[in-house]
Amino acid sequence: MAADTTATRSTLLGVLCGAGAGALWGLVFLAPELVRAFGPLELTIGRYVCYGAISALLLAPRWKAVTAQIPREGWIALIWLALAGNTLYFVLLVNAVHIGGIAMTSIIVGFLPVTVTVVGSRDHGAVPLARLAPSLLLCAAGVLCIGWQAIAAPGDTPLMSRLIGLACAVGALASWSAFAVGNSRWLARLDTVSAHDWNLLLGVVTGLQGVVLIPLAIWQADAARSADQWTGFLTVSLGIAVLASIAGNALWNRASRLLPLTLVGQMILFETLFALVYALIWEHRLPTVFEVAAFVLLVTAVLTCLAAHRKPAADLAPLGEGAAH
User: Fold this and answer.
1) Which of 87, 70, 89 is nearest to 216 (CA)?
2) For 198-257, what is each residue's pLDDT tens digit?
3) How many domains, in total, are found in the chain?
4) How do residues 26-45 score in pLDDT, each as one tens digit?
């Protein structure tokens, strides 16, 4: 009975951490709209150089102790995880938002729970995919509802531009799916490294990637910006670095340690839901019937997934164990 209570509390805490991460990550969808004078590469550099600098400062007093726990293959993993989950993902996301808008981008990225859960269902000890089918169907229906109007009424944007925006959104989906699965497995593999320290190391590596991209951004720059525009850019870059990259990633890593990968995938739904809420606030409008339906479907999908995981302990591997990470 005590073990069941502990498992339930761990699951609840993991869900709350996942929801918190989604609330903070949803802000990222607004960033391109807040500073449209700056391109995807500039926004990526601004966000991740700030993220890297803050991470390095926080890690500095314990740098030797923390890095001593990271094997060579762990550093290689940090490089590709930083690229897949941060640098490449954000460049593609900003491009998608600039071209197709928040609604279209949130639909495509909203399929993350489906892709991550399907991959996670192959891990040893995971909930069988058949048991997750109702949740996945509800999830698919919900994310389709979110952007129905964006698809049905694309507006004056040329077809080729819409296709490029769609391709960027799909690329972001693939990039972050790879990150979500790989990050969860490395967190389990390096169980002596705290989720917070792993996030900070990821920040340092991502920041270095941002620094490497600065010459390319300078070469691409084709317009002068005012002092007010630069102030806004620095404010947004620092804001999303602290809120989304530091705090959001820390909450996500905590959720990844507390929940099985199949359930972690469902937590990404919260990013889609909060992105929609922020978009409605930004556009000063109420949700449509389809958006309300999407909200209900996505929440029901999470609850259904939670129910699928509340099975006898003998049927499931212990939380955080048994996966082929």
Assistant:
1) 87
2) 889 999 999 999 999 999 888 877 777 888 889 999 999 999 989 988 888 888 888 878
3) 1
4) 999 888 888 888 888 999 99
Token code pair at residue 46: 């601004």
* 315, two tokens: 């049927």
The alpha helices in 71-126, defined as continuous H runs, are 72-82, 88-109, 112-120
The one-letter code for the residue type at 212 is V
> Residue 111: which domain range?
12-315
Q: Which two tokens stand for residue 52?
A: 């890297």
Encoded tokens for 196: 């917070």
Per the structure block, which two tokens stand in for 55? 């991470």
Q: What Å distances lie between residue 264 and 49, 56, 96, 187, 229, CA to CA?
A: 28, 27, 25, 13, 38
- Residue 325: inside a domain, yes or no? no
Q: Is 71 exposed, middle or buried (0-12, 13-18, 19+ CB in 10 A)?
A: exposed
200: tokens are 């900070």
Given a cut of 90, whether residue 187 has pLDDT beyond it is no
Q: Which residues are within 8 A (CB) of 148 and not within 5 positions of it... i.e. 6 or more apart?
A: 290
pTM of the model: 0.78
Domain assignment of residue 254, yes or no: yes
Number of neighbouring beta carbons within 10 Å of residue 2: 6
